[in-house]
Amino acid sequence: MGSPAAAPRDGSTPPLPTNYTPDSLRQRADINDVSRAGSIPAGRTKLYAIVRADLSPGAKACQAAHALRAYADHYPFIESAWWRRSNTLVMLEASEDQLMQLELRAHKRGVSCVRFVEPDWSPAGDLTALVIGPEGRKLVSDLKLAFRA
Fold this sequence. Notes:
Layout: H1 22-30, E1 46-52, H2 57-74, H3 76-85, E2 88-94, H4 96-108, E3 113-118, E4 126-132, E5 144-145
Parallel strand pairs: 1-2
Antiparallel strand pairs: 1-4, 2-5, 3-4
Helix pairs in contact: 2-3
């Protein structure tokens, strides 16, 4: 198999090498094989996405996705280990004030935490979501699950 193509700058998927075979495609697909990332029932590692409670369900989902992407950028080794060990995500919700307090507590305790600020919603941007790493379980234990009626 030829050398992998560099990722295009526009974020699209790089083209396949010109000299690929079906076996080389299978090997390449193994890199992102989600079947290898199944949940481990006992003692599983979890990431916690906390979204603002006052958002619509669609906005909650989008803001959580943005925050998860930011977390993966900021903490690639934690996110990668989480993905391989369990890929269990807990979606929680909180008020904007609770989000800010939670972020402060996470930073004070050295817990991995990434915020997402939606730049399209106000000139300064609104804090809409946080992702807290597995070591922050106790910080989020009193929050409600998102998408509950």
